[in-house]
Structure formats: structure tokens, C-alpha cells
Amino acid sequence: MVSEKVIVLNPTGLHARPAAQLIKTAAQFKSHIIISKDNQQGSAKSLIALLGLGIRQGTEITVMAEGPDEEDALSSLIELIRSGFGELKSY
């Protein structure tokens, strides 16, 4: 199992659109992927689980992956989250 902490940067947090992007990315991997916030956890492949975590801008989350492609899964998801799901304005 691999894991990494990351801060959600996009202004609207993990609402439906970025959650759908996260799910689409996670679905590409065979590994079991969990998103953790405080003492709550949810599958990175479930919209209801992700939205139920109530992740807002500035929230630190932990992405955990376990399986045959765990390193690639973790790397892809961390990159997506750090990018702000395409919602960050560039100046």
C-alpha cells in the first residue's frame, strides 16, 4: 500500500465535477483506492462516497492505493488534485 497527503486547492473543493474527474482517473487502475479526510474514508471510485467526505478548498486529504498498479494510481491522482482539477486560474 502506498499513500500520500495532499491539500485540495481548487476554490470549490471536491464538488460533483472534480469528483467525477477523480473517479474517471481512479477507474483506469485495478488498485483499490481510498480517499481519507480526518477519520472518514471513501472509495475514490464512488461519487457518493467522495461527496460524503465534504472536502473543501484547503482540506488535507490522504490518497491511499493498494494493488498491482498502486504507484501509478497514486501518482496520477495526486497530480490531478494538485492541478486543482482544471479550476485554478492562471495569471
Give a verbal description of the structure.
By secondary structure, the chain is an alpha+beta fold. The protein has one domain (2-86): HPr-like (Histidine-containing Protein, Chain: A), CATH 3.30.1340. It is 33% helix and 25% strand. The protein is built from three helices and four strands. The chain has helices at residues 16-26, 47-52, 70-82, and strands at residues 2-7, 32-37, 40-43, 60-66. The chain has a four-stranded antiparallel beta sheet. Strand 2 and strand 3 form a beta hairpin. Helix 1 (16-26) runs antiparallel to helix 3. The radius of gyration is 12 Å and the shape is globular. It starts with a strand and ends in a 9-residue tail after the last helix. The mean pLDDT is 94.
CATH class membership = Alpha Beta
Largest sheet: 4 strands, antiparallel
Uncertain runs are none
What structural class do you assign from the helix and strand content?
alpha+beta
Compute the number of helices: 3
Mean pLDDT: 94
Q: Please report which band the strand proportion falls in: under 5%, 5-15%, 15-25%, 25-35%, 35-45% or over 45%.
A: 25-35%
Task: Bin the helical content.
Answer: 25-40%
Number of separate structural domains: 1
- The H-level CATH homologous superfamily, spelled out, is HPr-like
What general form does the structure show? globular
Q: Please give the number of β-strands.
A: 4
> Which H/E pattern describes the elements?
EHEEHEH
CATH architecture: 2-Layer Sandwich
What is the CATH T-level topology?
Answer: Histidine-containing Protein, Chain: A
Radius of gyration: 12 Å
What multimeric state do the chains show?
A: single chain
Cα distance spanning the termini:
38 Å
> Strand order, biggest sheet?
1-4-2-3
